[in-house]
């Protein structure tokens, strides 16, 4: 089995590569990443350099919008499409062009090549809970009406629709996984948990957007990786399926801060600033669909996941 991981230098992509390399059934993992400068590219280079050295891993530094994807996909069995321009709060203004290029255009180009690939058995797409926006029902299910609240969410939903269209029209065996706020070792440095923990450990002030009553269904990265592997191996799931990948810990940001303070053993210095445009009030999903279709449920509790995240960041800050 040959796997392609796009976004292989990123937070989730690099963790997925690490896990795929543990599986003897996977003969080769090809990673593609353009190492964008959305956050410090050194973090991505470190993600790559810390992968266990293996002759079964090949990394291609390239933009999906430029690379010859037809040639690349010829021998691929499973595509794990993690590449994208993430970040809800930065998706306004002129940055939106990056969201269109890296989320919509790159996905369309990859789907065109996937359509021609004779060998491909599964195309897994990293979708997002941001497609729901401020939902009218909780927990949100995959049939809840998506109403994105940020430009980022609009692009993730547009790409998800493209993925489903290639399944409906060409029978491409796709699965879209809607991840809910992922955290854990190697998390992107613009995200809440990383910023909170790094500030707590360095004795810096923590910036809290709004009053901290916003709720997130935080999901540990190993659980997200496991969902990808189950979806990639699944032969039964119908093409075009869309599944929530949510952590089962729907908590307020204030609760998270309390837990970080007690696990890290420090008194946090919190500074409140205004709520940021695009930030939804609540995400909370159900994993019933993922359990039924691919046998997936989250395994890592918020407390355990935060403890692992804190220990990883403490070690890397030394
Ligand atoms: P990340 O930024 O760490 O990883 C994405 C990687 O994609 C980056 O390394 C970037 O350089 C690469 N990339 C971007 N555009 C590219 C292009 N055109 N060609 C090649 N490489 C390109 O982000 P992440 O948090 O690991 O997120 C991975 C995926 O999961 C993204 O698609 C994101 O939208 C989605 N997602 C993430 C979360 C989360 O909480 N982290 C939640 C929902 C969905
Ligand atoms: C995250 C990812 O960044 C998106 O890429 C992803 O698609 C999305 O999850 C998703 O679930 O679909 P977000 O929920 O905003 O988006 O994740 P965090 O950056 O971890 O923020 C969580 C909460 O903490 C937000 O309400 C945010 O406003 C708040 N926050 C974040 C702060 O109060 N301070 C900070 O410094 C950072």
From TrEMBL:
| UniProt-listed Gene3D superfamilies | NAD(P)-binding Rossmann-like Domain, UDP-galactose 4-epimerase, domain 1
The chain positions of domain NAD-dependent epimerase/dehydratase read 3-246
Q: Give the similarity note.
A: Belongs to the NAD(P)-dependent epimerase/dehydratase family.
Protein name per the record: NAD-dependent epimerase/dehydratase family protein
Alphabetized PANTHER family for the sequence? DTDP-D-GLUCOSE 4,6-DEHYDRATASE-RELATED
């Amino acid at each position: 089995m040959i796997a392609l991981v796009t976004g292989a230098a990123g937070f989730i992509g690099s963790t997925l590569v690490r896990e795929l390399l543990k599986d003897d059934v996977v003969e080769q993992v090809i990673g593609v990443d353009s190492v964008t400068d959305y956050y410090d590219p050194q973090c991505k280079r470190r993600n790559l350099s810390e992968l266990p050295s293996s002759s079964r891993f090949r990394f291609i530094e390239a933009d999906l919008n430029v690379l010859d994807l037809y040639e690349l996909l010829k021998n691929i069995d499973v595509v794990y499409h993690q590449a994208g321009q993430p970040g809800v709060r930065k998706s306004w203004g002129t940055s939106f062009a990056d969201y269109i290029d890296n989320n919509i255009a790159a996905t369309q180009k990859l789907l065109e090549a996937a359509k021609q690939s004779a060998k491909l058995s599964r195309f897994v797409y990293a979708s997002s809970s941001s497609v729901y926006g401020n939902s009218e029902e909780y927990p949100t299910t995959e049939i809840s009406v998506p109403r994105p609240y940020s430009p980022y969410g609009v692009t993730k939903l547009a790409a998800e629709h493209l993925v489903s269209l290639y399944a409906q029209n060409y029978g491409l065996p796709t699965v879209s996984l809607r991840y809910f706020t992922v955290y854990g070792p190697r998390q992107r440095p613009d995200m809440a948990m990383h910023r909170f923990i790094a500030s707590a450990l360095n004795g810096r002030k923590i910036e809290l957007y709004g009053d901290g009553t916003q709720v997130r269904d935080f999901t540990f990265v190993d659980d997200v990786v496991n969902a990808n592997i189950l979806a990639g191996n699944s032969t039964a799931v119908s093409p075009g399926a869309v599944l929530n990948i949510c952590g089962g810990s729907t908590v307020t940001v204030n609760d998270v801060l309390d837990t970080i303070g007690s696990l890290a053993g420090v008194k946090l210095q919190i500074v409140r600033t205004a709520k940021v445009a695009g930030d939804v009030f609540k995400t909370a999903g159900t994993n019933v669909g993922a359990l039924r279709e691919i046998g997936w449920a989250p395994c890592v509790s918020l407390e355990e996941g935060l403890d692992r995240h804190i220990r990883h960041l403490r070690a890397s800050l030394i």
